[in-house]
Write a structure and sequence with these properties.
Strands 1, 2, 3, 4, 5, 6, 7, 8, 9 and 10 form a ten-stranded mixed β-sheet that branches. By secondary structure, the protein is an alpha/beta fold. 37% of the residues lie in helices and 26% in strands.
Length: 233
């Protein structure tokens, strides 16, 4: 029977990891069982008693698991970082987001907006909810907001025409064909999330788990991260 390697992974690195899966499975004789979600949602599952072999979380999520004794000592590796970005449907008119004032005007004039529901725990959704409060336009923006399903992407809402402006991690936006990156948040509004991998302390496949993390951190994998909108560590 084929061995199984359970991976709990943030959605932002999905494009990179899925590219590596087939060759890794053949080389190591395992099947990767990957759970994709926001880091906070994955942390809640772990806290509720679920187990994994490899954890790929944001920095805050990994720190939470480390404090709980759930990360094998010495196994943690920083993989890459990602900026929160705004996107439009490919070919649509590009509104101005070059300054905080321009961003505020663009958000107010947009017909409909999508971003990750803050209640789902994603870093970009939590930050954007705080940002529109900071800009004093939360009620106006939320009145025309459509949230994707928990753990889902906002890109399909752009492509379908449901919204004309979307906010999420840059690599998550790039997952969907027909989406065009407008840019990252301007000036001191800029927000970056760091993604970290580690071996879950209860893993019975420690060597294989470490091999996957080594592959993710390998120099040649850096180009995959860049192509998916992430900055490799």
């Amino acid at each position: 029977m084929t061995r199984e390697l359970k991976v709990f992974s943030s959605i932002a690195v999905r494009g990179v990891l899925e590219t590596l899966v087939p060759d890794f499975e053949r080389a190591h004789g395992v099947r990767l069982d990957i759970a994709w979600n926001t880091a906070p949602a994955l942390v809640k599952r772990l806290q509720a008693g679920e187990r994994a072999d490899v954890l790929i979380l944001n920095r805050a999520g990994m720190d939470t698991m480390t404090r709980a004794g759930r990360v094998l000592a010495g196994s943690e590796v920083t993989l890459a970082s990602s900026a929160t970005a705004l996107a439009i449907r490919a070919g649509a008119k590009r509104p101005d987001i070059s300054t905080a004032d321009a961003l505020r005007r663009t958000l107010l004039s947009a017909r409909a907006i999508a971003y990750t529901d803050p209640a789902a725990g994603g870093a970009s959704g939590i930050y954007f909810a705080q940002l529109i409060e900071r800009l004093g336009i939360a009620s106006e923006v939320n009145a025309k907001t459509t949230f994707p399903p928990p753990g889902g992407l906002v890109g399909p809402l752009l492509v379908s025409g449901t919204v004309d402006l979307a906010v999420q991690q840059k690599p998550e936006l790039l997952e969907v064909d027909g989406v065009e990156i407008l840019g990252t948040l301007p000036g001191d509004l800029h927000m970056v999330t760091t993604f970290v991998a580690g071996v879950e302390a209860s893993s019975t496949e420690v060597d294989t788990a470490k091999a996957l993390i080594t592959l993710l951190a390998a120099p040649f994998t850096a180009d995959l991260f860049r192509a998916r909108g992430l900055d490799p560590a």
